[in-house]
Amino acid sequence: MSLREKKIEKKKQEILRSAAEVLYEKGYHGATMEEIASRLLMTKGSVYYYFKNKEDLLYQVHMVIIDISLQTIEEIMARDQSPTEKLRDAIVSHIELAISEKPMFAIIDNPDQTFSGEHLQEIVKLRSKYAHCFDDILKEGVEKGEFSKIDIKLTRMIILGAMNWIQQWYSPDGERSKEEIAQTFSESLLKMVLK
Amino acid sequence: MSLREKKIEKKKQEILRSAAEVLYEKGYHGATMEEIASRLLMTKGSVYYYFKNKEDLLYQVHMVIIDISLQTIEEIMARDQSPTEKLRDAIVSHIELAISEKPMFAIIDNPDQTFSGEHLQEIVKLRSKYAHCFDDILKEGVEKGEFSKIDIKLTRMIILGAMNWIQQWYSPDGERSKEEIAQTFSESLLKMVLK
Amino acid sequence: MSLREKKIEKKKQEILRSAAEVLYEKGYHGATMEEIASRLLMTKGSVYYYFKNKEDLLYQVHMVIIDISLQTIEEIMARDQSPTEKLRDAIVSHIELAISEKPMFAIIDNPDQTFSGEHLQEIVKLRSKYAHCFDDILKEGVEKGEFSKIDIKLTRMIILGAMNWIQQWYSPDGERSKEEIAQTFSESLLKMVLK
Amino acid sequence: MSLREKKIEKKKQEILRSAAEVLYEKGYHGATMEEIASRLLMTKGSVYYYFKNKEDLLYQVHMVIIDISLQTIEEIMARDQSPTEKLRDAIVSHIELAISEKPMFAIIDNPDQTFSGEHLQEIVKLRSKYAHCFDDILKEGVEKGEFSKIDIKLTRMIILGAMNWIQQWYSPDGERSKEEIAQTFSESLLKMVLK
DNA sequence: AATGAATGAGGGTTCATTCAT
DNA sequence: TATGAATGAACCCTCATTCAT
Fold this sequence. Notes:
Four copies of one chain form a homotetramer.
Chain A: H1 3-30, H2 33-38, H3 44-50, H4 54-77, H5 83-100, H6 102-106, H7 117-143, H8 152-169, H9 178-193
Chain A binds a DNA duplex (21 and 21 nucleotides) through α1 and α3.
């Protein structure tokens, strides 16, 4: 990758971050290109130099975070660990990512109101790919006898719901540290599935 | 209340329902006064006869659903039951309400992006009042020795998160009935807190 | 038609006229909704109350003038006259219309750069329907032996071209009156086709 | 002219051609500097090295074609031929130029929407210089008794109008060749003026 | 001689809101 | 009560133009 391409890539990343922030604070329709740009001391027009349009920009924001999530969980699944350990690690990773990348992460909840056509399909596809990783871990746990006979899908929904909700209440100034939260969540949720 | 006032009240309720629907489908900024009105075969102008402005209308939508939720849980708390039973009932009620009143219920998740000033404060206050009901039940359960030594706040967050997430995936055409979901959720979540 | 509908219709006509004017002076891309509106002391927004968007508005401008032209020529063709008389009348009518409705008439020349899809097809269809009326008159003239053996299509093109070019140079302040022009044109063009 | 200047001149010509093309396809406002440049695998910025701005570029496009037209007709007028022959040659030349240089030629129709001030005046001046050549030929024909007593100006307008309209319908894939069209046009138009 | 990047003005469009009727 | 009509602010997006390199 040439120097120039690197610079462009870097700028794009900056814009994606800014977009994620604004998106997180204002929601899709509330987020204006103007504000996304001005936080970087750029003008609207410049953003259009890097991204085709608003939907494209916001779509890529989604992609970034989904990609990271998927890589993380797939790496965990590939480990030589027991399902219990895998589930704990997946929960901890998800929470830490959700907290440390709060703006980016908070966005992926309601793509329906935002995207249409191919973009929506792609996002839904990747989201469900991510979800199925949890299913796989749960299934393995049940088969190996580590987990009790649970309803896989509903259990996955409980776990994801509990974790994603963190966005709604977490504040870095709160009493509990990121690590404590991840720790407590994984313990509690594991208790729910263990025999 | 005079007949006239009753009629007005009824109309307001209709509008609130319509607003909730549109809000649910399109999100705050995507929901237009035009559409809210036209679903009732009214015109935009008429809606303004009943509500001061969009924020006011949406605020009242929130209020309706929060009120119902609060009444329900307070009624449960007043019952002469064990914390375990109370928690189960609270979970079941919440889920059934969330599902049967999906449009109205789905809205309450991100008030920050929507409201400001007094309205926001009022909503946050009531939401946290509702949340504290769960805390109280959990606390009572721990004190009475029914629940294990849990982190009250985080546990409450897990429970609420898991339940509110239902909005994201529940469909009346899905495999599981409302009752099954409520049943499985309460079992799983109870397993998490019970000794 | 109710009074209200009449009023709307009237307003639409006003807007169409204004649009034709601006279109005539500035061309499609040069014509702004702002200016179309401001000439009627309206605001851009109001125009959107009557027309879906710019293309729709400009499309209807085209339709108005094409409709008038077609009605006129079809009426002439239905007359019990010789081809020579019909052709003369068609020429005179076209010119008088082109002059008296200059702004509206000037527009129909380059729809390709303006419209797309269905709109374009519809316009092209009606334009060619109009053109074929001339063909029919010419054909009849040849068959009846009034006109010499001419190339129908090219002759029609000469006639239409000569007439539409009037837009480019006619000014009400010029030496020749509308009637003189129509008179001279029909004489000259008839001379071209007569035996 | 130095080699360097020649190279610049050549590049300018290329750009003018490209500009004419785009202009022809999209109209003045529809033609973007971006597209004019990209067809030559250049960037917008480079075009500005050769031309001051868009109006300047488009103005020069006009000039090129008007110059060619003028040279051609002036050469014809200088010939030792009868007015009839001159008129026929002028018509044939005009048509062949209009067809073979379609993009460039199509542009000169509506300068009013495009230019202002000096540029517009210059163009109008040259256009009318060209038109007057036809007048001169016609006048000569009348004086010499070859043409009937025609209205010079209106006749010229008919001829120019018929010829310029070719832009609107000519296609290289059509039934008639360039030569046939030129032939038929000159015959028909001559018939109109001949005694 | 060329270009990548940035800008800002302007245009199309939407929509909450108002107000006379 | 209800609504038709109008408004204006705000938003997305395009594009001519500039300028450092």
